[in-house]
Design brief:
The protein has 13 helices and 11 strands. With 316 residues, it is of the alpha/beta class. Helix 2 packs across helix 11 and helix 6 packs across helix 13.
Length: 316
């Protein structure tokens, strides 16, 4: 017993000295602003997260085009946290019978919209018969919203066709296809909404100002193993949201610089400032607000069986 008592402090010191890597996924979208700003701080030699998590925490960032691919990375165990839309998170939770995913915080509301060609008379779902609508990825939040809106308007929508065609297309390709009229409409997020307006004369038909656009999720096993660490990450995430809200001009400049430095995307200041008021940065999330997305996913056939949702939201 005496020997064990002597060893425990040494074992604790060794455990505390071990580096813990947190692998965080996000998209190169303004609606993932916390991730972009955090990476911008790192580029300045400051680490918003590790300065609050402690010297043993190492943040690694990974970029994805849309939510379903990020959720596959969660399933594979190659991501620990991710900024993602609510529908991919809900789908992943359902696919794993509630075992793999936890939503630990909100991130951004708003910033998503349906943009249409200005001269095609597209005003209601019925006008979209035979039309092509681009979305960021099959099964992502905007993809589900597009399918649910068309279906609720009386159209028959299948995964690959129907009365209108929902065409999952990477955001940069959406812009070029919209310009060449190979897409009649696009349901997407900022900054692509504003780019479609400014660069392709797109017209906003539906703007989702109150919609949950981005949440912060954790791999359930990582949360269980490092709950205190995830708690500190969430607290830092909330603090960063407050900083962003209090420093909009600096935040916009950092987003612009980060998109250019890491993703080779150049955006003029007026584009960022146009997109900014459409978003609300928030750390809040609750299960009742997510039920809307569960219902949409059910209506379009992405969810056939719904597991107990009581564990979906877990704020550490």
């Amino acid at each position: 017993m005496a020997i064990a008592a002597v060893l425990r402090p040494a074992e604790t010191a060794i455990a505390q000295s071990r580096k813990i890597t947190i692998r965080v996924g996000h998209f190169p979208n303004i609606t993932h602003v916390q991730a972009l700003i955090a990476r911008g701080f790192e580029r300045r030699g400051q680490s918003w997260f590790t300065s609050r998590l402690g010297p043993n925490a190492v943040i690694e960032w990974y970029a994805y085009n849309a939510g379903p691919s990020a959720m596959e990375a969660i399933f594979a165990g190659s991501l620990d946290l991710a900024y993602v839309g609510p529908n991919p998170a809900i789908n992943a939770y359902a696919r794993s019978a509630g075992a793999e995913i936890r939503i630990v915080a909100g991130a951004v509301n708003g910033g998503s919209a349906l943009v249409v060609q200005p001269d095609e008379g597209l005003a209601s779902p019925r006008d979209f018969v035979g039309k092509r609508i681009g979305t960021p990825q099959f099964g992502n939040t905007q993809d589900v919203s597009a399918r649910a809106w068309l279906r609720d308007g009386g159209l028959r929508i299948t995964q690959s066709g129907g009365d209108a065609h929902v065409v999952p297309t990477a955001n940069p390709e959406q812009l070029s296809l919209f310009k060449t009229r190979q897409l009649d409409a696009v349901w997407t997020v900022e900054p692509w909404v504003s780019r479609l307006e400014l660069e392709a004369a797109g017209k906003i038909l539906i703007e989702e100002r109150q919609a949950i656009t981005t949440v912060l999720v954790a791999r359930a096993a990582f949360l269980a193993q490092h709950r205190d660490l995830v708690h500190r990450f969430v607290e830092a995430h909330r603090e960063l949201g407050t900083w962003i809200s209090q420093h909009p001009k600096e935040a916009q400049a950092m987003v612009r610089d980060e998109l250019k430095a890491d993703f080779r995307v150049t955006m003029p200041p007026e584009l960022i400032s146009r997109a900014w008021p459409r978003m609300t940065v928030t750390g809040d999330i609750n299960l009742s607000a997510l039920q809307v997305y569960v219902a949409k996913a059910q209506r379009v056939g992405f969810l056939t069986t719904i597991p107990d949702l009581s564990a979906l939201v877990d704020s550490p």
